[in-house]
Amino acid sequence: MSKANKPSDVFRHIDMHNGNKSVCWEWKGKVNAKDGRPYFTVNNKRKASYIYVLEQVSGQRQGGHMALHKCDNRICCNPDHLSWGDHQRNMDDMKERERHGVPKTVIRAIRKLLAEGKTQQEIAKLYGLSREAVSAISTRRNHNDKKIT
Description:
Layout: E1 14-15, E2 26-27, E3 39-42, E4 45-48, H1 49-58, E5 66-69, E6 82-85, H2 87-97, H3 104-115, H4 120-127, H5 131-138
Antiparallel strand pairs: 1-2, 3-4, 5-6
Helix pairs in contact: 4-5
């Protein structure tokens, strides 16, 4: 019978770069195939690895909060890059930083191509995106269809 994980065991699967807090601490364990997020299981409870990290470092339980990334790196587990927040704060942050799942340089290039008259379908094919993603970038909406101002 295998030994069950403790919450502090999460750190065994993180490259902490010798404690350098300025860089992302990447998860070295398995990630979920569907969303690319790192998960860890303690007492048969599976959560995102960075949630266990934030709970360990902050001393606070997740409760109704979300773990927010300052670095936009979904496998980062550096507690200096994480904070507790609510859904609205996460959505506000997403709008502010224009996160559509593609780099800002690509977003700028897509908007330039749109201004030059390329169709959303042509751009979607060029970048391997859905036409809907290009539309959201064009109209400055996030994935929840809220207008980005």
